[in-house]
Amino acid sequence: MTVVRGPLKRTSVSFLLFLSILVFSIDARAASRLDGRVLDPDGRPVANAEVVITGATAVPQRVTTDDQGRYVVPALPAGRYLLRASAPGMASDAVTVIMTDEAAGSADIPLRVSAVTETLVVSAAQIDQALSRTPDSVTVIDGRQLDTRQQFTLGAALRSVPGLTVQQSGGPGTLTSLFTRGGESDFTLVLVDGVRANAFGGGIDLSQVALEDVERIEVVRGPQSALYGSDAIGGVVQVITRTGGRPSGQALVEGGSRDLRRASGSTTGELNGIRWNAGASHLEDQGFRGQAANGQAVTNDQASESQVSASLGWRHPSNGADLQGSVLYVETDRGSPGPYGSDPASRFGGVDTVSLGSTARVSGGVRWMQPWFGAGSRVRQRVELDVADYDLDFVSPFGMSTGNSHRTHARVQTDVAASAALGFSAGLEWLDEQAGSTYITSGTGGAQVPVDRGVLGVFGEGRWAAGDRVSITAGLRGERISRAALPGDPLAFSARPAFPQDTITSVNPKIAAAFLVSRAAPGSGARAWTRLRGAFGTGIRPPDAFEIAFTDNPSLKPERSRSGEIGATQALAGGAIQLDATAFVNSYSDLIISVGRAFAGSSRYRTDNISNARARGIEASAAARVARGFDLRAGYTFLDTAILAVRGSASAPTPYTVGDALLRRPRHQGSLDVAWTHARAGAFAQVIARGEALDAEPAFGPTGGLYLNAGHAVANLGASWKPRQQVEVFARMLNLFDRGYEEVLGYPAPGRTAYVGARVAVGR
Asked: For the chain, how many helices (H) and strands (E)?
C-alpha cells in the first residue's frame, strides 16, 4: 500500500433476482484491511469522525472512528482510493491510498479547522463529487446541524439557505411551498434517497417531507434538467438518510405549545457487510385556537403526520458490488380552516369548520452499483428502479373529492474513469406517471379518467478536473415526452375535446466550471484562497394533470427556463472563514396561463404557453468557525423578479401589469445562525428576516386583487444538555418576541411557541 498526502411490483422481484445473478457472477478479488487514525490540528485523536473512501468507480464507503480516533475498513480490494474525513468544525483534504493484494495498509488523516464540512455531493453531477470540487451552487446541511438546531421538517431546514424562499400557510402541517431563485413552487425537484417526492407535474408540499435520522440535505440551485429531466427546472433538493456505520439506535419524545406531541425512534448500523436503517415517527399539533379577524373562534386547524421508513443494503466484500433497497410510507391529516388573518378586501366568509385533507404516500426503490471486473475497475454500472403512489382525500362542505398519482422510474447508467482527471457518464432513464382526480372525468356518467405520461431520456456527461485548480462538468439530455390519448368531456364546466396522443422532444444542456485563483490549494498551508465558478443550463417542466385536463389545447407544451450564474468563494484563516457570493439570471418562458378575452388574439385556446417572466439576483453567505465548538452562519438574498408581456401582446395576464413582481417572492431576505456544541451541551440562536412581498387576496386569489404583505423578522432560540452520555434533554422557543406576521397573506404564523423533549441514544 502507498499513501500520498493531499412497495414494489412483481417486476421488481425479477429485477432483484437479475441483480443477484450479476453481482455474484463478477469475479471476486482479494481484499486487504485498511486502518488508521483521524487527528485534530493538534495531533490528538478525534472520536466519531466520519471517513469516506472513494475509488475511481467504486461505491463510496463510510466508516466512523472509535473513541481512540481509529477507523477500520475490513476489506478493500486492490486499487487507488481517496480518503476524506470530517468532524464538527473540522475537515480533511484528500489522502490518496494505493492498495495492493499483498499487505494491509494504514493511513492517518489530519484534520484542519473548517467553516464548511467537506463531504461528497451526489446531486450536482451524475457521480459523487467532493463539495470543494463541485462547480455548481451547492449548499449541504449536515445532519448534526439539524440536531443542534432541533429541526425536524424540510421547510425549517431550508429557510436559511440563500436563494430559497419558504412560504408556510400557518403552523405545523400546513401547506409549505418552496420558491428557488424566484421560480414557481413546482420548479424544484425534491428527492428522498433518490426517489422523487413531487406529485405529477412537480408540485411539492414540504410539510409532508419529515426529517428523521438524516445524514445530510443537498441543495443544488439552478436548472438541473440535464441531470434529472423534468421537474428540475429551478433546482434540486435531496434528503439523504443515515445508513450503515456503528450499530446504534435512538428514541425521542417532545411536547409543547399548541398541544404539540412528537415521538420517533430509529436504528442504523452495519454488520458483516449488511447495513440498515429503520425508523418511525408521529406528530400531532392541535393548531391555532384563537380568534379570526372578525372575532370568530378558529377551529379545524389540527394536523397529524405519521412516517415509517426502512432501508437495507449489502456490499460485496471484494468486487465492490453494492445493493440498496428502501421503502417509505407517510400519512397526514390536516384541517383546513381557510384564511382567517388579514382581510384586505373585507371578504372574510367565516372559518371553515368542515374541510379536512388526508394524504397517503408510499414509495420504494432499489439501486445496484457494480464496478466492472472488480472494485479497482475504471468502469461502473448503475441500475435503479423505484415506484411511488400518492393519494389525497379531501372533505369539504361541498362533499368529498379524491386525487391520486402513480410513478414508476427506471435508470441505467455507465460511468467511466478514463484517467484521474477525466470521467464520463451516459445512460437511459424511463419515467411513467399517471394522475387522476374526482374532477378529471369524461362522458355522461362522469367517470374518472387518468392522465398518462411517459418520459424516455438519453443523457451524457463529461467531467474534467486538473487537480484542485480547474474543474469542468458538461452534460446533455434529450427527452421524448409522450402523453397518452385523453377522452373528451363535453359536459364539463369548461368542455374538453378528445385529445389524441401527443409527443414532444426536448434537449437540455448544462455546463459548470470552477477555477482556483490562488496558487495554493486548500490544505497546502495557505491562509487564504479564492475560487471562481460559473454555470449555465436549461430546465423543463411538463404540464400537471389539471393543466392538461382543463384546457382545449391538445398540444400544451412544457414550461422552460434558461439560467446563468457566476460566483466566487473566498476562504480566510486557513478555511475557518468562508465567504460566498453568486449572481444569477433566470428566464422563464412558455409559462402556462388561462388566455381569456384580453389575449384572444394571442392564442385560439383557453390555455396556452404564452406567458413569460424573469428573475435575477444575488446570493451571499458567510460561515465561520470562530472558536472551538462555536459556529456562525449568515445568508442574504436579493431577488428582483418581473412578470413580462404575454407573447404577441404588450400586456401581462390579468390582474398583473408588465413589471409586477412575482407573487410571494420578497426582494430582500436574510438569516443569521449561531450554534455552540460541546460534548455535554449545545445551544443555538437564529434570526430570519424578509422584506415585503406582493401577494394575492386571501379569499379569491389574484382575481380578488393584489396586495403587499409586510415583511417580518423572527428570532428562535434553543439549548440541549446531556446529564448522561446516552441521554439528552432539549428545549427551544420559536418566534421568541411573539411577532405577528403572515408568510402567506391571510394565514397567520404561530406566535411565541415553546417545546421541550428528551432523546435516548445508544451507540452514537
From this structure: 5, 46
